[in-house]
Write the structure tokens for this entry.
Amino acid sequence: MYIRPFGDRPIAQKVTLVSMLASVVALLLTSLSIFAYEGVADLRAEPGVVATCVYQQDGSLLLYSSTTPMVQRLAGYAGIVFLVMLISTAVTYLLARRLRSLISDPIQNLVDTSRRVSSTHDYSLRASEGSADEIGLLISSYNEMLEQVQQRNHDLERHRDYLDDEVCTRTAELEKAVEELQEEIVQREKAEERVRYLANYDDLTALPNRQRLKERLSEALVEARRNDAMLALLILDLDRFKEINDSLGHGAGDLVLKQVAERLGQCVRSSDSVARPDSANSAHMLSRQGGDEFTILLDKINSAYDASRVCSRILTALEEPFQINGHDVVVGASIGIAVYPHDGDDGETLIKHADTAMYHAKQAGRNDYEYFSDSMKKEALHKLTVEGDLRKAIERNEFVLHYQPKVSSKDGKVCGLEALVRWEHPEQGRIPPDAFIPVAEETGLIVPIGDWVIRAACSQMRAWRDAGLPPVPVAVNVSSRQFRKCNLLETVAESLAEAGLSPRNLVIEVTESIMLQHEEQAVRALTRLKDLGVRVALDDFGTGYSALGYLRRLPLDSIKIDRCFVSELGQNEQSASIVEAVIAMAHGLGLEVVGEGVETEEQAEFLRSHDCDELQGYLFGAPVAGDAIPELFE
Ligand code: C2E
Ligand code: MG
Ligand code: MG
């Protein structure tokens, strides 16, 4: 077992105690030895010690002695020893104190320094160094250690500062990255939301789009089938919206569409009354199909007649002019109605039939509504067949040109020819242009057909020239749709060049319908044709667009008075007045006049007497095939 003789006393006390103990022990030992020695010596020297000596009978010797003097001397010695011991203890104590301060002061200094260092964490503190003994060495080692700790602490602080900076920088970077990420997430969510929105809604009017309508329509049809209910699909197309776009610009057009959407929205909302009274959740839906076309789904109607009430309300609502950039703009609409289950039992069929009905409403004079009917269905089917056959006809080259002469009213000589297309159908025989040109125009097939007509007319002219016929100009009819294709000028120029003809030999006949849409485009295209040297005639004058202002804007050479006026000459005074006025007006504008559809000598005479420049009609010759033309000149 470990023995701790001085407990937990400080070293200094221990040193003092040990020294004092040592001095006491030394003194005791010294005193004892002195006592021993002195005692024996004194016993021998002291006369009073052996006092009496008696011999006993048995021969033994009995010694008597008094111890008093010896005790007294010993007491004297003991006193001296005690005194010496006291003095030596005092000296030892003083020496020990000194010794203690020599040892413990530096150690205390070390302890104090350590305490201050640990309480203040100030590693720049140093214990004061004194002697070069072991404690001095200990202090300097301690100071060196402090030095190292200070250095290490300094390094640590620098490192900590660096780490702090680094953490701050990284944290800032991280925060920025998190912010950017959040921003990106928000942007992405917005973009996704936008994509979802655009997939289902129209950006301009914020109405559901075609896609959304299809979905809603099929849902409504499922519901209608289940409940044995009726629903109506309305397709609405604005009348002459292109005129607004062309005259006021597309920005104004967009404003019109927005305002129309709002008005239609009101009409559809207020049309809830047409729904069955028991259908609290009837959901009519207005959507935009694109362009100027809107659809209205009337869910759960009582009868097909309900749809017409909504249509009337819409047409009345549209009568009020729209305020667009300071202009009063009036927009009409043509509406087609298809009713489930009568007109189809799937969404696609209903849309198709409502569309067909809408076209009928347009053709019937616009700003009206029309129900889809069986005759329309037949007509639509017929158009579809004609379109298919026309495509084949273009591939198989089933078209031929017939030519009708125009004669000069002065000398009666042939002064021009008009090329008129015919379709030699493999099964139906010859088909007149009126039977297929409208379908060709609707489907855009008029463009390849028209190109072919121009090329064929030019090459026929070449053939006649080569056969020695007099050089009379040939007119071709060009539909408004061809003007929207930019290659008309190229086709004309190429065809003339290929046939080696001067552009003066070609007359382009256009109808007033080219002014209905894309007026500027038409005027530009005609001007380019005129610049090329081609002549331009306005066909069927008086039948269509009744504004005369365009006569000044179009770069024309002549106008052709429509057959409907000519045929009534001699029977109808008004027609005669119109013909007279048209001739005078055309001459006033520096244009030549052609009378069309002249069938009688009386009509010819009237036209001649009113200075009509050229005459055309069965009276002078019906349209005939190209190879019959030479006879005409003979
Ligand atoms: P259009 O250009 O006004 O041609 C005159 C039409 O009146 C021709 O009918 C002609 O046969 C007919 N016609 C001429 N004289 C008389 C007459 O005295 N009495 C009667 N009743 N009719 C007469 P067609 O050939 O049937 O052409 C009809 C229309 O088809 C043309 O009217 C023209 O607008 C269009 N058309 C003809 N060929 C083409 C073509 O190649 N391209 C285009 N885009 N349209 C064409
Ligand atoms: Mg014509
Ligand atoms: Mg005509």
User: Anything to note?
Assistant: The chain has three domains: 1-197, 210-372, 386-633. Confidence is low (pLDDT under 50) at residues 272-282. The longest strand covers residues 414-425. The CA atoms of residues 310 and 359 lie 19 Å apart.
